Amino acid sequence: MDPNKERKETTGHLVPHESRRMRFRMARDDMRQDRQQQQVLSFLSSLQANFSSLVRLIESRLKYDKTKEAAFERLYQEMDELKQDQELNQLRPLYIDLILLIDRMNNIYKEKVSSGSASPEITSLLESLSHELIEILYRRGVELIVCPSPRFDPKIQQVIRVIPTSNPQEDNLVVEVVRHGFKYKDVLLRPEEVVIKKYKP
């Protein structure tokens, strides 16, 4: 039989042989599409797994960086504190000597004023030198202690004399500052020496 005659009948419909070929082609195309879809799905699944792995890696890295940063911060802080402690240990004797010099000048100033023998030039000079020394210390982190309350504070003050009082409201009241106290940042160099009243019924 002639193959060309097999292709079409007079009605124009496909002959059974051609129909089988068409079905085979369609099935093959469907299989190809299924394979392509499976490949795409497999690729997407692999991509998602890689992305999840990357996210976990980034999170782990960020956590590691934060831990490392915190560790470095602690290290820098400890080094800074150690440096400050070392500076204070080296400079404490000098600071104490300057504080004692200020005390000496203040005592001379008080003696001269109370005795009435001080000339205005000398008292002005002593006062000026005392203020300059306090300013020099301040620039190096040493400050005068300023008590915020008129009541005795054992953390920053030391009692050198007690005056009895019959008034309970005057108990622990500071009536006189004999010597100023000084601190270096948060470290007490010398407490403020005070006279307080103590209630005695």
UniProtKB/TrEMBL annotation:
Example GO biological process: protein folding
Keyword tags: Chaperone, Stress response
SUPFAM superfamilies: Head domain of nucleotide exchange factor GrpE
UniProt keyword Chaperone present: yes
GO molecular-function term, one example from the UniProt record: adenyl-nucleotide exchange factor activity
Domain of life: Bacteria
Chaperone keyword on record: yes
Pfam families registered for this protein in UniProt: GrpE
Name this polypeptide is given: Molecular chaperone GrpE (Heat shock protein)
Species: Thermoflavimicrobium dichotomicum
